Amino acid sequence: MWATTKVNRKLKQLTPESLAAQAADKAIETGHKLKDFALDVREGMVRREAELGGALGLEAPVDPDLPVQRYYAVEAAEPPADTNTYRKLPYNSNNRNEDH
């Protein structure tokens, strides 16, 4: 009786529905582990950035006697006057690609 129950339990675990549910559970578990890993990496990056900022003096107050940094806006190029112009390719009479 015990062996029959054990065999039936194993057979139920090997049905396609059960295998799909097990795979889905493992995928969710793996997703949670990846999220935890990404959060740990992000925390380490923030900590390291703070260490580097302190070592390089990036957190120090700015000297008011220094000139203000200027930012220049980049202007877009003028569009061509005729937007329907196409580049002309040189004619090559030896081009056999059109013969097929």
UniProtKB/TrEMBL annotation:
Q: Where is the composition biased (Polar residues)?
A: 82-100
- Ranges for the region named Disordered are 77-100
What is the recorded name of this protein?
Secreted protein
